[in-house]
Amino acid sequence: MKAKGKNPEDLLMMSKKGQTLMLFVSVMDPSQPDRNDIRPFTEKWTALWQSQLYNNHVDLQVFVIDDNRAIFMFKDGEQAFEAKKFLLKQEYVTEVTIEGQSFDGPAKKLKTTKKEL
Fold first, then answer.
1. What InterPro entries does the record point to (predicted)?
2. 5 band by pLDDT with thresholds 50, 70 and 90
3. H-assigned helices in the chain
């Protein structure tokens, strides 16, 4: 296993193969960054991302758990790391958390820039 893993994330990805894994995604609507009642926006975009990942043969379920937060659940944990890379490219994602590690998305920069103004 060590021979194939080039970095710690590769090792973690290989160790989660075949196991259920959850990934948390936080979303922000850039047209209304100060509003918290964006549940319809969150539901729309997480469903779209789910279908895009599914079309790329990534099997997952999505559960919206808060107005701006959702859980992506994978039957094969290895696929969660592929989804993480995809989600971190989406403009409305503020944060992705997987295995206790948080990664900032593109919308996080928008959020901090608007607060500074």
1. MESD
2. low
3. 8-15, 39-55, 77-87, 106-116
